[in-house]
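Subject: complex prediction, re-run

Hi both,

The earlier run crashed halfway through, so I resubmitted it with identical inputs.
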Amino acid sequence: MTDSEIKNNLDNIYDRIRTAAEKSGRRLEDINVVAVTKTVQTDRIQSVYEYGLRDMGENRVQELLEKYERLPADVRWHLIGHLQTNKVKYIIDKVEMIHSVDSLELAKEINSRAGKHNRKIDVLLQVNVSGEETKFGISPEEVYEYVNEIAKMDNISLRGLMTIAPYTQDPQDIRPVFRNLYNIYIDIKRKRIDNVSMDYLSMGMSNDFEVAVEEGANMVRVGTGIFGKRDYAQK
Ligand SMILES: *Cc1c(COP(=O)(O)O)cnc(C)c1O
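This time it finished cleanly. Structure:
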């Protein structure tokens, strides 16, 4: 992908997000785009930066750390992949948000490490809506218990929910997955729990972001749709 191809892809994605947002009574400005930069070289990421995007997502700690060094300091890094408890310490002062909280043990470690840095870190709870065995995330039934536990942690701010939908040929098939999570998100929002603010619903990837936005996502994580096919197979 050349610089201009990447910028064309972004124009196209923003157009499609605008249409999807309008279908659900919102505007393009209400939707946050996280450019998923895993496996992508720094010069390509620079094109996205020049376009104006500042939110970048990585799913591996090591790769995030390398890119953190190479890209401008105002990039907001999102850790979107499964995070091992023993790696929290490496990224705690470098990320804007952790999308993939999937155990209380992990939440506790994030809380304690954030405390040592005197910061309060934004996290999302990852929910495995469809119960796919190959995916991380807690079940929809567990969400409320987790929300109540994380609400007690002083150095974590629970900002919303995240999911990765199953891959399907036709993204219409997974509309119920997105709708289901949106309903849980709204339900928690209405409960007005202290230290919990349901501001972000992170769902939708290259294959399915339009359906996700139509169903209420306000944060999408797009990789191949911007950068083209990844060099090596990584989910
Ligand atoms: C890779 C990845 C994405 C982006 O996937 P694309 O299909 O390339 O858009 C989004 N979210 C997570 C958690 C990922 O690991």
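The chain has a mean pLDDT of 96.

- K.
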